[in-house]
Amino acid sequence: MFSIFFCLTGNKSGTHGYAVLESLALVAIYNGVITAYYVRSGERCLLPIIYSDAIAFMLLIYFSGGIESELYIFLFFLIGLCGINSNVSNTLKTGITIAAFYATACILSTGFQADATFYTRLIIRAILILMASFAVTRINLEVRKNDELIKKEFRIARTDKLTGLANRHYFEQKVKDEVEYVASTNSVLNILMFDIDNFKGFNDTYGHVAGDKLLALFSNIILQCIRKSDIPVRYGGEEFVILIRDLDIIIARSVGDRIRSQLEKQRIYLNHYDERQRVTVSCGIAQLPGHSKSIKEVIEKADEALYYAKSIGKNIVVAYDEIGMPREALERSQRGV
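-> structure tokens emitted (337 positions)
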């Protein structure tokens, strides 16, 4: 408004040019501040920002010569900003609106006294603005398409195809973040390591299709028994690992036992066999930093606890500090007896 006042009261050779430069500076500052606000507020604020900028540029164009002003080039920047941060429909609508605003500003600047050349130039520039909108939408579509492909490939790279759980590669990356979380919050991280009992024999007897069915079933049981913040991983073959943060090892063990008992209750139905097959799983648990301050050692200790669970008859959950206890004592303690 300050610049408009100078434009209306000043002379063409002096104040008018000064006002245009002042307007450009004000618009640049305004656009930077509002765009920063937009980044924090989300897409819902984008279109009002774009239209506010468009109106500001239309005023600049109106007071700097209308069709003779080269400031219309900045309108393509607004279309590009909309295309980058909004959807295709909004970008096309914005392009049409800006073209209409521009035509109005140019016509008003002539006082409705324009010749055929003026209208020819105006139509050409309006068409250019619309073409730019269309081009930006096409680029936006391709960028989003490629972005989705990259995200899909990333998900595939970190996900086990059969079970849908994280794979070992993702586990090795994620466990570093969990260790940092434990160090920064003075918390704990439980490593639960599972191994399906007699899986090789099951595979040899009933075939790989049945084995895959069992792995998928166990994965679903895990997902049903854990929190969203817990990280389930297919560690390899019939081995699974769960990362559980912030829980006491007794509670973490109860999670492991719930998963174990849920699988024990299941009976795998195989079409070419008359009866359903019972399957069990063993689990070993270790905790960071309770059992070691090294995550590598904690994983090894969880594996040792799992090995001990296997050695005392399988189908049981054993914490690292319970290694050496008789099975009967473990079962009594887990039952709270």
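The beta strands are 189-196, 231-236, 239-245, 267-268, 277-278, 281-288, 317-319.
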